[in-house]
């Protein structure tokens, strides 16, 4: 089956989510500097990074297919937490999230035929209190190593989550409601 779009991401979770809604796609990961600018607001940050990913991907391929990119960040106390560098960093991140609410910002960027559309999803997640030992054991599973906020909502960390308000798929890394709306702008209907 021929691809309907190019996903500018190496994330297997984003690819799985697109498959979940029946979107055939090719994957073309791009490498950009994802360092936040000093004082950059979380929404502006994820929107900028998603837009840069889609722009770089669109410029590096000669396909006429639409290009979809996304960026997701975990925010606590207004601070972008990022991905953990090591066990100590994961302990710091997950201890900060323990027993508290935090936000997950997920931006989607779609480029097609000279047009650019973006959408933003913001979800609120509450963790139950976590012990130091739980955090260490969780790290040892390998799951949090490459995840924003040092956790995967769809994995083992699901047992940490007391509540979520917003988009489960957005917390995973690709908000499907917003993605489907953007795809319809490019003439790709999810349910046909």
TrEMBL record:
Enzyme Commission numbers on file: 3.6.1.9
Cofactors, names only: a divalent metal cation
Reaction catalysed by this enzyme: dTTP + H2O = dTMP + diphosphate + H(+); UTP + H2O = UMP + diphosphate + H(+)
Cellular localisation: Cytoplasm
InterPro entries the UniProt entry points to: ITPase-like_fam, Maf-like
GO molecular function, one term: nucleoside triphosphate diphosphatase activity
Organism listed in the record: Methylomonas koyamae
Its job: Nucleoside triphosphate pyrophosphatase that hydrolyzes dTTP and UTP. May have a dual role in cell division arrest and in preventing the incorporation of modified nucleotides into cellular nucleic acids.
Principal localisation: cytoplasm
PANTHER family according to UniProt: BIFUNCTIONAL DTTP/UTP PYROPHOSPHATASE/METHYLTRANSFERASE PROTEIN-RELATED, BIFUNCTIONAL DTTP_UTP PYROPHOSPHATASE_METHYLTRANSFERASE PROTEIN-RELATED
Cellular component annotations (GO), alphabetically ordered: cytoplasm
Pfam families per UniProt: Maf
Catalytic site positions: 71 (proton acceptor)
Keyword Metal-binding: no
Name by which UniProt lists this protein: dTTP/UTP pyrophosphatase
Family annotation (SUPFAM superfamilies): ITPase-like
Keyword Hydrolase belongs to the record: yes
Keywords from the UniProt entry: Cytoplasm, Hydrolase, Nucleotide metabolism
UniProt cross-references to Gene3D superfamilies, sorted A to Z: 3.90.950.10
GO BP term (any one): nucleotide metabolic process
Similarity section: Belongs to the Maf family. YhdE subfamily.
């Amino acid at each position: 089956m021929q691809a309907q779009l190019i996903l500018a991401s190496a994330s297997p979770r984003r690819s799985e989510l697109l498959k979940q809604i029946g979107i055939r796609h090719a994957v073309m990961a791009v490498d950009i500097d994802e360092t936040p600018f000093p004082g950059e607001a979380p929404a502006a940050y994820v929107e900028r990074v998603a837009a840069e990913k889609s722009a770089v991907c669109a410029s590096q391929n000669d396909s006429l297919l639409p290009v979809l990119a996304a960026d997701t960040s975990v925010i606590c106390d207004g601070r972008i937490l990022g991905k953990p560098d090591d066990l100590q960093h994961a302990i710091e991140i997950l201890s900060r999230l323990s027993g508290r609410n935090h936000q997950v910002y997920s931006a989607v960027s779609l480029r097609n035929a000279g047009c650019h559309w973006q959408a933003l999803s913001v979800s609120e997640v509450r963790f139950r209190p976590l012990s130091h030992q739980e955090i260490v054991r969780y790290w040892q599973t390998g799951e949090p190593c490459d995840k924003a906020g040092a956790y995967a909502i769809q994995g083992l960390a699901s047992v940490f989550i007391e509540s979520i308000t917003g988009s489960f798929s957005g917390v995973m890394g690709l908000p499907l409601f917003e993605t489907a709306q953007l795809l319809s702008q490019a003439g790709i209907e999810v349910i046909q």
